[in-house]
């Protein structure tokens, strides 16, 4: 495959944009390095790169593009809004209507505030929990990603109830000390941390269904236990539903699983592909936020008409009958075929799938936590990624990411992908 223009653009990018990319997860470092593919155009389930190659897109921009690219409903909403001005710095009716719609679908969000990104939403949800409880520490789960604010870029200490160490340069040790990291799906480790630090904990922060070390559902009873123990200790529960909301059904996974957090953070799909985030929760907690209360958070672009209109169009379109059934059916078909082919070609594979999102881990062990995902073979994934790319199938360039199906994928796309997977497996060399 000819990717000369991508290679050339990458060279130029490396000179002027640090690392050549505006977000590290776009680089191909985790899959052997070299130029990432520079995309020129996207429509429906397809990308076209700068050299004219076509790819079936399973990245969906790391989640938001659930309707496929340039969906007419979203595109017209953006265009109709743009002609009336893109940013006012005043309240608008659209924001009220969108907040009402989100509250109807995720009722624990009694009051809502829009932000510009998932990072901001989670960062502020934590500040709010601290403001409400008057406590400083948070408990989070290893491998869960919550954006790039200081507090959540902290890795596990050496044991489940030790304090954290920074995962990035530039984060003060004093901040990392406020974070306790425990393994996901291990209630005993959470209990141990709560027993040790519970009276200082403002919140337990969790992806209620993990999307950031691949797709990992909560074990039965796990989320109920998080709620029970956090609340017993006087801490709040924050759900980071930046990936999960509207991905698996028409609402948050909290409404799917019937467990409610105190505060929820949203992003990605609710912006229809434009920048957005939101946080919300019980009225009594949200009233701590300025101008009603003493906790400050603001944003020049927050709730801007373009993001709100695109988000509204996306969420309304997702309500069409059969949307989630179709995503689930395509996901099942693809995963069943991948499992069957993996067996046929002797490739060790574990697939975690929920609806139209799944991760193919190159391991024969079940993956229920970060350690399990780490144990999956990155070298085999890199081979798989490169071979599929050659076939015109674009996956996220990391073994820790998910494949996201969109409503734009067709049965032919699924069949094309299955044939590509078979050719890839045939060439792969497990060591
Ligand atoms: N939380 C989760 C669960 C995420 O997956 C992400 C982004 N991948 C974020 C927060 C941060 O969102 P953003 O990139 O919009 O800042």
Automatic annotation (TrEMBL):
Classification of source organism: Bacteria, Bacillati, Bacillota, Bacilli, Bacillales
N6-(pyridoxal phosphate)lysine: modified positions: 268
One of the protein's GO biological processes: protoporphyrinogen IX biosynthetic process
Organism: Lihuaxuella thermophila
Protein's name according to its UniProt entry: Glutamate-1-semialdehyde 2,1-aminomutase
Coiled-coil segments on the chain, per record: none
Enzyme class of the recorded protein, top EC level: isomerase
EC number: 5.4.3.8
Gene assigned in the entry: hemL
Record carries keyword rRNA processing: no
Keyword list, A-Z: Cytoplasm, Isomerase, Porphyrin biosynthesis, Pyridoxal phosphate
């Amino acid at each position: 495959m000819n990717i000369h223009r991508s290679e050339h653009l990458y060279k130029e990018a490396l000179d002027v944009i640090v690392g050549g990319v505006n977000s590290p997860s776009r680089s191909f470092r985790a899959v052997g390095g070299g130029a990432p593919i520079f995309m020129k155009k996207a429509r429906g389930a397809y990308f076209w790169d700068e050299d004219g190659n076509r790819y079936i897109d399973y990245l969906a921009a790391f989640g938001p593009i659930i309707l496929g690219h340039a969906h007419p409903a979203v595109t017209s909403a953006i265009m109709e809004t743009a002609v009336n001005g893109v940013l006012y710095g005043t309240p608008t009716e659209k924001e009220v209507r969108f907040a009402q719609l989100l509250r109807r679908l995720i009722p624990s969000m009694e009051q809502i505030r829009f932000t510009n990104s998932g990072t901001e939403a989670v960062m502020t949800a934590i500040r709010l929990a601290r403001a409400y409880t008057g406590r400083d520490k948070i408990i989070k789960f290893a491998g869960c990603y919550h954006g790039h604010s200081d507090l959540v870029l902290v890795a596990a200490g050496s044991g489940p109830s030790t304090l954290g160490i920074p995962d990035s340069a530039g984060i003060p040790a004093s901040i990392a000390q406020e974070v306790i990291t425990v393994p996901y799906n291990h209630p005993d480790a959470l209990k141990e941390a709560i027993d040790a630090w519970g009276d200082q904990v403002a919140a337990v922060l969790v992806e209620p269904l993990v999307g950031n070390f691949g797709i990992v559902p909560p074990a039965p009873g796990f989320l109920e236990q998080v709620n029970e123990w956090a609340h017993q200790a006087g801490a709040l529960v924050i759900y980071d539903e930046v990936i999960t909301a509207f991905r698996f059904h028409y609402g948050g996974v909290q409404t799917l699983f019937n467990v409610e957090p105190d505060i929820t953070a949203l992003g990605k799909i609710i912006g229809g592909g434009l920048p957005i985030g939101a946080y919300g929760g019980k009225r009594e907690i949200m009233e701590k936020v300025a101008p009603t209360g003493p906790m400050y958070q603001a944003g020049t672009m927050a709730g801007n008409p373009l993001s709100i209109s695109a988000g509204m169009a996306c969420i309304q379109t997702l309500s069409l009958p059969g949307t989630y059934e179709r995503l689930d059916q395509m996901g099942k078909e693809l995963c069943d075929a991948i499992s069957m082919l993996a067996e046929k070609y002797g490739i060790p594979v574990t697939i975690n799938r929920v609806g139209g999102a799944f991760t193919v881990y190159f391991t024969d062990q079940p993956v229920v936590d970060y350690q399990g995902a780490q144990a999956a073979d990155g070298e085999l994934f890199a081979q798989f990624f490169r071979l599929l790319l050659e076939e015109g199938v674009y996956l996220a360039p990391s073994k820790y990411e998910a494949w996201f199906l969109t409503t734009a994928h067709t049965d032919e796309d699924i069949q094309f992908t299955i044939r590509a997977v078979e050719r890839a497996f045939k060439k792969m060399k497990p060591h």
